[in-house]
């Protein structure tokens, strides 16, 4: 591994991720960032799903995952286009796996939980990774108890988004899935991503 995640973490801490003195807006990595409480973020998703009704649960979940995937493409795409990335990370990248190491190091600074292990198959263009302390788990389980389905929608969209950025040409070339979720009682959340099969060969 040529990417030094400790060094990236140190540099991330010096980025001064606070709102602009004049406007209060925090523009960084080509996007506008905002600090929000996890309770707010999750409540918003629960309300959205509930507003569609129980019959549309799958649809509601898919919309949230798709939105997160668009967001991952924009945010991480912006990060990889940024001056900070060019100076700190790009010089150490020689393979697609190196690039993903850099993305993981940044992701683990964002307050979303921690990617503790991952396997990227460059040949098959498939990804599997484990997240400990996903930000969804504690507030969700406190409120609803254990779930019977995976609920880390943001991470699932990010899983597909990572592969869009590493191997694809546009958002949603790949699709993510959460195969184990700590909210269901698993020890960690586990995500996978692979190429999206197009129906009838239509792209
Ligand atoms: Zn989960």
Q: How would you describe this structure to a colleague?
A:
Helix 3 (57-81) crosses helix 7 (153-167). The protein has helices at residues 5-13, 38-52, 57-81, 83-88, 96-107, 137-144, 153-167, and strands spanning 26-28, 31-33, 114-121, 126-132, 174-180, 189-195. Strands 3-4-6-5 form a four-stranded antiparallel β-sheet. A two-stranded antiparallel sheet has the order 1-2. It contains seven helices and six strands; from the N terminus they run H-E-E-H-H-H-H-E-E-H-H-E-E. A hairpin with a 2-residue loop joins strand 1 (26-28) and strand 2 (31-33). With 203 residues, it is of the alpha+beta class. The protein is globular. The protein has one domain (5-201): Trafficking protein particle complex subunit 3 (Muramoyl-pentapeptide Carboxypeptidase, domain 2, 2-Layer Sandwich). The structure holds zinc ion. Residues 134, 136, 150-152, 178, 181-183, 189 line the site of zinc ion.
Fold topology:
Elements lengths: L4 H9 L12 E3 L2 E3 L4 H15 L4 H25 L1 H6 L7 H12 L6 E8 L4 E7 L4 H8 L8 H15 L6 E7 L8 E7 L8
Antiparallel strand pairs: 1-2, 3-4, 4-6, 5-6
This protein binds zinc ion.
Zinc ion binds next to loops.
At a glance:
With 203 residues, the chain is of the alpha+beta class. The protein has helices at residues 5-13, 38-52, 57-81, 83-88, 96-107, 137-144, 153-167; strands at 26-28, 31-33, 114-121, 126-132, 174-180, 189-195.
User: What is the N-to-C succession of helices and strands?
Assistant: HEEHHHHEEHHEE
Strand line-up across the major sheet? 3-4-6-5
CATH homologous superfamily annotation:
Trafficking protein particle complex subunit 3
The whole-angstrom Rg is 17 Å
Strand count, sense and barrel status of the largest sheet are:
4 strands, antiparallel
Helicity range: 40-55%
Q: Return the CATH topology.
A: Muramoyl-pentapeptide Carboxypeptidase, domain 2
**What is the CA-CA span between the terminal residues?**
35 Å
The number of strands is: 6
Q: Would you state the CATH class?
A: Alpha Beta
Would you identify the regions where 5 or more consecutive residues have pLDDT less than 50? none
Mean pLDDT: 92
- List the ligand species: zinc ion
Give the CATH architecture. 2-Layer Sandwich
Silhouette: globular
Structural class: alpha+beta
Number of helices: 7
